[in-house]
Amino acid sequence: MKLRAILLGCVAAAAFPAAAQDTATVVREEGDILVTARRAEERLQDVPIAISVVTGEEIRRQGMFSLRDVASIVPGYSFETLQPLVPQTVIRGQTNLRVDSPVTNVAYFVDGVYLQRPFLVDQRLLEISRFEVIKGPQSALYGRNAFAGAVAISTQAPDLSAPTGRVSGTVGNHDRFEGRGFVSVPIVRDRLAVSVAGAWSTFDGTWPNAHPLADAEGANTRGRIGGYRNWMIQGRVTAQATETLRIEGSYIRTERDEETVPSYTVGTQTILYPFNTLNASPRPGLTPPFTVQNRLWVGAFPSTPVVAPQDSARPAGVVIDPRAFGLRGPTEFATARLEWSPDGPIGVEYLFGYARGEVLGRGSPSPNPLLPVTVPFPPFTIGTIFDESGTDSFFRGTAHDLRFLFRGNERWNGFVGVHHSRTKDIASNATSNAPTNSLVEPNPATYLFPIGPGLPFPNALFQRTGYLERRESIFALYYFAEVRPIERFALTLEGRLSIEDQEATDFLTREPTNPAVQAFSPPRFSQSITYFAPRFTGTYRLTDDNNIYASVARGVKAGGINGNVPFVPQRTYGNETNWTYEIGSKNRFGNLTANVAAFYTDWNALQTSVVRLQADGTAPSFFAIVPSTIGNIDGGAKVWGFEAELLWQATESLRFYGNAAYNNSTYKDGTTSQRFGASGNCDGTVCRTIPGTPTAVLPIGGNWLERVPRIDAVAGGRYDFRLGDRADLFVSLEGTFKGRQYMDEANLAFVPSRVLMNGSLGADIGGLELTLWARNLLDKEYVSTALFLIGTNGALSASYVPTFGERRTFGLTAGFSF
Question: Could you tell me whether strands 464-486 and 393-407 are parallel, antiparallel, or unpaired per DSSP bridges?
């Protein structure tokens, strides 16, 4: 029986950035978890970097269908979806402060391909063999934006020795159906093999949509909210050309059609919603009759939507316009790998990677989609407004990675590598409108009008609001060296020198002499960024099963280009950096595994939202919308915490496990929020601002960072037993805990803590595997995360969009392996 692979163990520091996740393999031999990420088998317990591993078998047995499911059982790692276009990943309290940043604080890989944009990340249907969460800065070897850590997803490889395969199907509540198959065939035994996989999945979500048209023909959200209809094809080939030469290739294509997430909105009185649903910070309004209205939310978000008493037209429950949707479009990845390993001290590895994606998305921000938006002066009805942020966005990238391995003796080994990649992407944003309480779609000819020099701008209120083309060329040199001056002590030295050349063209710029058309020469911007990311690690092996280690590492998240904003210094923003200091110990005492790690992170030049200033550097008018852009704020943050993992194999059949993480993630003293201060929503009691340049600012030193739980944990057990001569059975039960998370930098609104239960019961009867699984077993209703917007709906506006987690899901999965 395979040992449950959810360990706060270690990943091989020798993994080079674009290939490590596919070269590592996890096997069980005499009770040990082994990895080969450094091109030699090593026990996971021996490698001095914290990692959590979830196998494909665990994913199947526990009924996991998304990264959020996987994250729920990995303490110190969080994955939440504000919308499918803007997933948010947190490792060790280092959240992505600007939710729509082009890159996040965590680097994701699939079979060696770096997923450069957030919308490429959550690939639900891959035939996964292993999922690795590598904690702490990995910029030295994993490269760009592995700032807080890296996540490496490996798909199932073909078998050179014998035909293998698996077919499975799942049925579950809320119209869940899934079919998948995998087959691997050796074309030339021990020399050439190919594998093909395919999957199709549909699910209708767990929260009913109270909109009267939710079940009508043509509704995007169908009857419930949060579902999807996806399919995937996946192919891999492995050729052992000679004893020393191995060639591999892979291709994956996924078509995703995902609904919007279940959520509700609370906010100030604006043209989007004439009622106020906030509960704190009363301030006078700017529109007649200038009545005092609440501007902010203080306290926990309730697990039922907040409805204004005056809004009698709004049905109870979650109400989402049925024309909204989360994400549609294809993504594809391809790799080609060559490994030459002759006898002798030198080896060579080369990896080529390709990634591409095109997406559409449409949000429904209105608290009551049945209430049309009207403008009083002059009076006219707009209908329903949709947020098309991210829709019509595109990404394409290629990468080359060449590594030379130097095999010494038991005293030293290492490698050097060179990396080059090119990317092109388009960040497109828009707003649209359509008649209220209808299934009439917004007119794409208006809000997605063609882009190009000299083409016309349509005379429309709702249209594209952004179209930025970005190009990047990244060159890096990196190295890894391990020396053992004495038998029990090892010192590793790692580093990466990166040079990034960035260019951007802002196509949504009007021609100065004819504002009715797009600029004949759209403005172009560029910057070059150079940085060095080192890592130093020392490991002392007390016994064969016990060691201690310490490391110092620098993380770098590259800066970028905002485009043609009015104030010239805000057209670019700089690198975000950290230094992390970690100590840990990994231990096995017979049947007990006990791993602990403690760390401190000094985090600087945070990339977050700042007020978009006017051309002269002054703030926009107090009576206007307060737009924001990406910038680096003064001050910073500090994070300290620890992780602990226990695994007790009580008997051959019974095991218990418990993992926990504590992350104290706070802003440094002197750090301020510019956008919060500029909005004018603080009443002096709930929150107080101070004069700043060029706007008022909100002091946030000592406050928790947004969307970061201080404590999360998982505990459970599993019992395996045999029934008769042919049936192997198992039963497992686990509980997960996630602590309170503040949703704004003022620490006023928060998502309360939660405890969820998961369970599964399975049997293997002569090769037929049956698994009955349930997630959120007690059907807890809870808010999982929230989006906080301030100043975007007009002067003195603020709104919160709490997002619900999935309610109870259960199903039966039947599979057969051959």
Answer: unpaired
Question: What is the DSSP pairing of strand 560-561 with strand 546-557?
Answer: unpaired
Backbone angles phi and psi of 649, in degrees to 5:
-90, 85
Token pair 């007009």 is found at 794
Once rounded to an integer, what is the mean pLDDT over residues 260-272? Answer: 88
Helix ranges (H only) for 424-508 are 444-447
* Contact present, 193 and 187 (Cβ < 8 Å): yes
The tokens describing 632, both together, are 């680096």
How high is the pLDDT of residue 252? Answer: 93
Count other C-beta atoms under 10 Å from residue 168's C-beta. Answer: 18
pLDDT tens digits, 631-677 = 998 889 999 999 999 999 999 999 999 999 999 999 999 999 988 88
- Largest CA-CA distance found in the chain, in angstroms, rounded: 85
The letter for the amino acid at 679 is S
Average pLDDT, the chain: 88
Contacts of 217 (CB under 8 A, 6+ apart): none
- Tell me what the mean pLDDT of segment 178-192 comes to: 95
Q: Which residues contact 369 (CB under 8 A, 6 or more apart)?
A: 211, 319, 320, 321, 384, 436, 437
Strand order in the sheet with 32-35: 27-29, 32-35, 42-43
Which of 43-47, 310-314, 426-430, 756-760 shows the lowest mean pLDDT across its residues? Answer: 43-47
pLDDT of residue 793: 64
727 Cβ partners below 8 Å, 6+ apart? 763, 764, 765
Taking Cα atoms as reference points, which of 41, 13, 10 lies closest to residue 28?
Answer: 41
Give the chain's length: 818
Alpha-carbon distance of 63 to 772, in angstroms, equals 8
Q: What is the DSSP letter of 616?
A: T
Handedness of CA 495, 135, 420, 521 (dihedral sign): negative
The one-character DSSP state at 247 is: E
CB atoms within 10 A of CB 449: 17
E strand or H helix at 594, and its extent? Answer: strand 592-604
Question: CA 338 to CA 193: how far, in whole Å?
Answer: 15
As a dihedral over the C-alpha atoms of residue 510, residue 516, residue 517, residue 522, rounded to 10 degrees, the angle is -10
The β-bridge partners of 43 are 34
Cis link prior to 378 (omega < 30° from 0)? yes
The answer to whether 715 and 728 have CB atoms below 8 angstroms apart is no
Q: Is 237 helix (H, G, I), strand (E, B) or coil?
A: strand
d(CA 289, CA 384): 25
Which stretches does DSSP call E strand in 136-269?
A: 149-155, 164-172, 176-188, 192-203, 207-208, 224-225, 228-240, 245-258, 266-267
Tell me the pLDDT tens digit for each residue of 349-398: 999 999 999 999 999 888 899 999 887 767 788 899 999 989 999 999 99
- Beta pairing class for 698-699 and 672-673: antiparallel
121-143: average pLDDT: 84
**With 90 as the cut, is the pLDDT of residue 99 above it?**
no
Task: Write down the pTM of the prediction.
Answer: 0.90
Buried b or exposed e, range 99-130, using 16+ CB within 10 angstroms? bbbbbbbbbbbbbbbbbbbbbbbbbbbbbbbb
Side chain identity, residue 321: D
**pLDDT (tens digit, 9 = 90+) per residue, 213-249?**
999 988 998 789 999 999 999 999 999 999 999 999 9
The whole-number pLDDT of residue 238 equals 96
Report the pLDDT value the prediction gives residue 30, as an integer from 0 to 100: 37
Buried b (16+ CB within 10 A) or exposed e, 73-83: bbbbbbbbbbb
- pLDDT on residue 526: 96
Beta pairing, strands 576-589 & 592-604:
antiparallel
Residue with tokens 């591409």: 356
Amino acid, res. 359: V
Q: By the 8 A CB rule, do 127 and 182 touch?
A: yes
Count of H helices and E strands in the chain? 5, 52
